[in-house]
Amino acid sequence: MPKASLISIAAYTPAKILTNLDLEKMVETSDEWITKRTGIKQRRIAQDEDTSDLGTKAAKLAIERANLRAKDIDAVICATISPDHFCMPSTACKIAKNLGINSVTTFDISAACTGFIYLLELAKSLIESGSKKNILIIGAEKLSKIVDWADRTTCILFADGAGAAVVSADSKNEIIDVHTAADGNYAELLITPGGEEKFIKMSGNEVFKVAVQTLTKDVVEILERNKISSDKIDLFIPHQANLRIIEAVKQRLNFSDEQCVITVGKYGNTSSASIPMAMNDAYEAGRLKNGDLILLDAFGGGFTWGSALLKFGGEDYKR
Asked: How high is the pLDDT of residue 195?
């Protein structure tokens, strides 16, 4: 059976930076309050770019870093809750078109902030079944278009960006294990109602409590299942939603500062894009290296959650 490996990572962020000081002029809030409650100092906002544009730019770099060409990709899957179009075409179809990728499996998934973990599970299954060889996965979000900029409880959190990776059949490093799950009983706590209510609504305190408990349990289970202790993890890269959630999970699991990748302060919460964006930051800073053992963990609307344990890079991977 072929092994599935995540052989490249890339990201793209829009040029416009929206700081907490900017938000002070828009809603009743303050830099001190936002920083204390969330750890966020700034976020990126797309202006003349769609979700597919963000995803295309990240995806193009991911393919280049994998030493592949567009014609080598045999599936394109995008995780997003802010697609270009309400129903069709999929954002993945538009990204594939932009890249010159034709006549391959192409579709979107919606798993909110856990989207990238879901993508890894799908890609791993498709590679290991032998049906695909090189799969392009993208987490892309333009959350600024579904945020109520008059709602100070949500507009301080969410932002825009994209991250992409190539998962290939490779003999060197592998995606060791992926776990995903969901519980729709919590749906009303984090929701985009639809119809005239198109903006994100969130019950922050309730989400925080369930997120910390669920994320901790999920990480413990995937480590125990694979007989790996937390000190063996080179990098722990959680979903970048809120610094308080990340710190709470980090402390419960005894991860050191050196093991953790935290980017929420400069990017905010970019939902399905946050994990690949954080991975890319670590890679470009030289923290994420070929062969490193990394642990990913995410929690999002649905509620959805998941974790992934993998070794990064492939045989032909280049910087």
From this structure: 76
